[in-house]
Amino acid sequence: MRTDAFSRNLLGRIVFAMVAFAAPSRAAGPPPARAVEDLSRGFRFSPPNLSFAEAPSTPDVLYVGTRWGRIYTSLDGGRSWEESSVLTPRGQFYGALRPWDGEDSVTRAGVTDAPGMQTVGELVDFSPDAELQDDNFDYTGGRPAAFRSLKLGVLSDAVAGGGASASAGGGASGSALGVGLRNTAPWLQLRVRQKRGWGVGISIKQTLALKAANWTEINFIDVDPRDPSVVLAATAEGVVRSTDGGYSWPLVLTGATKYERWMNQIARDPRDPATVYAASWLGLHVSRDGGLSWDKLIDPLVAQSDVTWVAFHPTEPKTLYVGVGWGLLKSVDGGANFELVYRSPWPAASLVRRVVVDPSNPARVFVATADGLMLSEDDGKTFDRTGGLLFTGSDLGVLSAGKTPGHFIAGDRYDLWETRDGGKSWQALLFGRIEWDVRAARFSRHAAETVLIVTSAEMLRLAPATPRALGQDVVDAFRELRAKEPSVNEAVSAALGRFGADVTERLAYRAGARWRHLLPTVSAGLIVRELDFNASFIDRAIDDDLELRRLSDRTDTGAAVFATWDLVRLLRDSNEVAVGRVADVNRSLEYNVRQTVINLYQERRRLQLEAMAEAFGDARTTLMRDLRLEELTAHLNALTGDLFEPYRAL
């Protein structure tokens, strides 16, 4: 919880802040006034963002990765975004099905008996059967219908879209088999339906399609410094590689277990862009060809460790620092051998999150851990805690070096701090409770004094403020628009009422909840019984001294009405109590509705002002902005019950 973490560090923050701000700073000057710009136009609100990257060669190309496998790409510096997904056909890797790549491939995604086609399995006996034939469809592509083994072919260019990406670099996938696509394998479906008692049943299409397209976290993104369209992404399923700017993501590195597949970071050698390291939950991998092929490092210190971070020495080509879940390792021979250089008796302080070697003084090595910031000033031989009590107890996930000597930022999910004197004094960069958690932050590659931040639902740019005056006509038009449209409070109230999450209505319900139990629960019943005067009944009636003359009617009826009261409910009612499961559900519903409406409303307002000010005039950005405004307005109308006038982009 945010409150618990802040409470634990409150004393340390106060003490160190008093010392830090009272002491004169050795920095060259005060930090520049920065303005926050939200670049997340077009982001979804539900999936948390996890990572981002700038293209080293092209300042306007940005990538943002999310928890659910989506990657956003911007070609204009964050003014507009396109969404892609890593849920594409898997690439060639250990354990993948290998499709037959001969010339005689099928044009339908289905079944063939082409010579050389790989036999996937002897599933059923495909003997000729007249009842299974359909004159309107050629199941075999012109070949005889009688064959014994199920052989699956790859998609042709017409079906799969053409190019090498259709088969994901030579590897097969569930999508490449064609069974996950609608109306592409009717013959296989029919045979599965006819096969009684087969375990997978008719869901083989969905099963294989889902197995080939799992969602995955995008934990880290790396862009090739020579080509902004070549991107590597570390995911929970391995390393994926895109060569088309994020439109397709073939898998290039995976593992046999979830620990081997989970990738934490990708580190590219700054002197040799073709050398790339991939840090996983279980080991460290290296590629010498830009990510096409990989080898696992076999040193026992890293082979079975949770590798969290890799940092390169700025002047020594073979030296790198590797953070693991239990300390910091150093290699001076490019990863062939490692030695342990830092470990703390406290487990949290041994969990390394980030490592930065000071570019201006390589003997200084900063290590961000789950319990504060450590610093070595002797090439990693010894480490001491730095930052005083400021970072003690903080799980630091942010650590980045700026372009000027001694300039660094560090922080956790809630607060970011900045130093200009190598860590002797710190100033608040982003402090206090915020709406979204900070997931990644670092200095921009291309703009001095600029920090890029990815939160759970935003992409922020903290840059030196450049005031831009708006014309009075723009200000007046925007004020007129605000006066004409519903306010954010009206939108939230309408949405809460529409979804039954209004606090006032719930309080009124709870206040009168017990009185409804004054009304009884009414139960009514009717009994109709027919009498059968058989010998057995007459004998029993004589034994019971019943007068048979009174049983002349053959039908006996009866009715009853009962009223019951639950007096306990008059004293208490679960819907009346403001705690417990009911209250949790209500608060969760209210929070989600309120949060969603406010976010949609604020982004819509920002884009409306941008459209009036004509801040960006190119046709592509204008169209993307208008389409987003149309989408936002539709979302708000769905939530509030058509409270806003529809927006037409085209």
Topology:
Blueprint: H1 2-22, E1 34-38, E2 49-55, E3 58-66, E4 70-74, E5 82-85, E6 119-121, E7 150-151, H2 157-160, H3 186-194, H4 204-211, E8 218-223, E9 231-235, E10 238-242, E11 251-253, H5 258-261, E12 263-268, E13 276-280, E14 283-287, E15 295-296, H6 300-303, E16 307-312, E17 320-324, E18 327-331, E19 339-342, H7 347-350, E20 352-357, E21 365-369, E22 372-376, E23 384-386, E24 398-401, E25 408-411, E26 416-419, E27 427-430, E28 438-443, E29 451-455, E30 459-464, H8 472-484, H9 488-498, H10 503-511, E31 521-530, H11 535-543, E32 555-564, H12 580-613, H13 619-640
Antiparallel strand pairs: 1-30, 2-3, 3-4, 4-5, 6-7, 8-9, 9-10, 10-11, 12-13, 13-14, 14-15, 16-17, 17-18, 18-19, 20-21, 21-22, 22-23, 24-25, 25-26, 26-27, 28-29, 29-30, 31-32
Helix pairs in contact: 9-12, 12-13
